[in-house]
Task: structure prediction
Amino acid sequence: MRELLEIVDLHTYFHTGEGLVKANYGVNLSIRAGETVGIMGETGCGKTVLALSVLRLQQPGKIERGRILFEGRDITALRESEMERLRGTEIAFVPQDPASGLNPAFTVGEQLLEMIRVREGRRGLRDELLRILGRDGNGLREVVEMLRAVGIQSPEETVRRYPHQLSGGMRQRALIGMALLGRPKLLIADEPTTALDPATRARIVELLRAIKGRTTIMLISHDPEVVAAICDRVAVMYAGKIVEVSSAQRVLKEPLHPYTRGLLSSVPRGRKERLPCIRGEAPDLIRFPTGCSFHPRCDTARAVCREEEPPEVGSGDTLVRCHLYAIT
Result:
């Protein structure tokens, strides 16, 4: 399969009063067309900034260095008007908070119809009048069918409702439906199952599994069960870098990096006993430790880990950034 997305040495920084926050600090990742790749890691490791950087929506952060190749074209060099044509139709984004992705002043149907108009490049006066009058019959039928496809009951009624009249799960499914209406080549979903009840979470997982393969997906999630159910490969982030990449099965069952092992062992799995945890705290993204960023929390750290940044080791689909596997 060809590479749809290639991220090469990406550095996305935020200039703050306290100093330079290096949210993405040399990220390398590729995603093939039709593949589903999960991005895992602790809160604050740079997962969402990575997703927003792909969309060039990382403001007030700035992409300081690196390339983001989408179908071979470096989108870091595109004008904003060119990015506007990519967003929604080529690359779609489902935010973590479904309430933030829908405008409370418009009905669900109006907002999904707008996605169809963007997809078809329909922005003239006639189309604006149709939006105001609600007479876009063909588009409305497509919206109703999409809401039905994403599992919303009574979609004919739902199109007339406002976002606050929907449950969190319904809003999340409506957002996924909106993203799919754009017929994107890449769908980025940021924690789409967070804060949902178990039944709704299961429905969202089934929905993502249903579209898997037809649409390339970048899935940001802290939930190993969701990642295992959906993803082909997994990339693990720590302190702004990807420290391990491999097949989902290998990462979740035979993790290589000490951080990945600690991260997975600290996830609740229905057990009652006290869970192990990674000692210490995530590093300050302004003042990185020398050497490997994980060494202050790592039980297997050696002298070289405190002195030198580890290289990427491995080949093919399996890479790990750790001195334990470096050739000596």
